[in-house]
Amino acid sequence: MRNKKVGARVALLAATAALGVGSLLMPTASASSTAADAPASSVGAEQAKAGWCTLTGGWGGKFYCGSSYMHTLPNGRRQAFVIGTNRQAYTQWQTASGLSGWKSMGGQCIEPGNDSIDLYWKNPRDGWNFSVQCKGTDHYRWLNTRHSNGSWSGWYSVR
Fold first, then answer.
1. Which helix (H) or strand (E) holds 11?
2. 58 vs 54, 71, 76, 79, CA distance in Å?
3. At 104, is the secondary structure helix, strand, or coil?
4. What phi and psi values does residue 64 have, to the nearest 5 degrees?
5. Gap between the Cα atoms of 157 and 144, Å rounded
6. Which of 31, 37, 73, 135 could make an S-S bridge to 43, C-beta 3.0–4.6 Å?
7. Is 81 helix (H, G, I), strand (E, B) or coil?
8. Number of H helices, E strands in the chain
9. Plot region of 134 (φ>0 → left; ψ -120 to 50 → alpha; else → beta)
10. Number of Cβ within a 10 Å radius of residue 159
11. How far is Cα 128 from Cα 41, in angstroms, rounded to an integer?
């Protein structure tokens, strides 16, 4: 699974589109790394020292470094998940006309970094149905499941 995650992050760097973002997931300039094989969290030294990263290729945003996951949907489009500066989970996905814009998924994720938001499981028969996870303030793993119709379950604890 680790190689797939790295591959998904690599693909993120090639994505392009416009973005409008609120103040909690602040837009920044793109990371200085332009190598197609660099992970999404690769940033210039100054950005990394400040503790913030951004996604290149027009995705924008400002989030905790090491706190991003890129998922490929069955139609080939990508959906990004990050932990924003307020420690909430955010998502953004590719659309026919560009990007959706960052949307808060709520929740409070602690220990940003070290792949703190990630894929938990994916339905092998239905790629539209999957769960993302983060560690909550109670130190338990919390999941938010995307249903086939595009709706989300809301966060629930797995103990």
1. helix 2-14
2. 10, 17, 18, 13
3. strand
4. -65, 130
5. 9
6. 31
7. strand
8. 2, 10
9. beta
10. 5
11. 25
Distance CA 55, CA 156 (A): 27
- For the chain, which residues make up each domain, given as ranges? 2-31+45-158
What one-character DSSP code corresponds to residue 136?
Answer: B
Please state, as a whole number, how many other Cβ atoms lie within 10 Å of the Cβ of residue 50. Answer: 13
- List the structure tokens of 105: 């998924």
Q: Encode the chain (159 residues) as per-residue pLDDT tens digits.
A: 444 443 333 333 333 222 233 334 433 333 332 222 234 443 322 244 466 888 877 888 888 888 888 999 999 999 999 999 899 999 999 999 999 999 999 999 987 777 688 999 999 999 999 999 999 989 899 999 999 999 999 999 998
Q: What are the tokens at 78?
A: 């990508």
